[in-house]
Design a protein that fits this description.
This protein has four helices and no strands. The chain is rod-shaped, with a radius of gyration of 36 Å.
């Protein structure tokens, strides 16, 4: 009895098929890309951008910062004048 011409119609094991590996590779590549993106964000942090007026007043105390803006200083002066003009009940 010769088995040289016998063909097998038995299905292959799942790990010998193309589609399971393709379907596993899609989410696996997403995980790798996410890890790369996290590494990239941690290793190259962006600097905080500030408006020019904020950059020069960032380290000043609150009162000095308020007085750097004329309209804020005028509001503070008006508020102070009102609090002196009206007696406390």
């Amino acid at each position: 009895m010769s088995y040289a011409h016998v063909t097998s119609d038995a299905p292959q094991a799942w790990y010998r098929q193309f589609w399971p590996w393709f379907l596993i590779a899609l989410p696996a590549s997403t995980v790798v890309a996410c890890m790369f993106t996290i590494w990239l964000a941690i290793s190259n942090p962006e600097e905080v951008l500030r408006a020019p007026a904020q950059a020069e007043t960032a380290l000043r105390p609150y009162g000095e910062v308020r007085s750097a803006y004329p309209e804020a200083a005028a509001e503070d002066a008006e508020a102070a004048a009102e609090s002196v003009a009206t007696p406390a009940s």
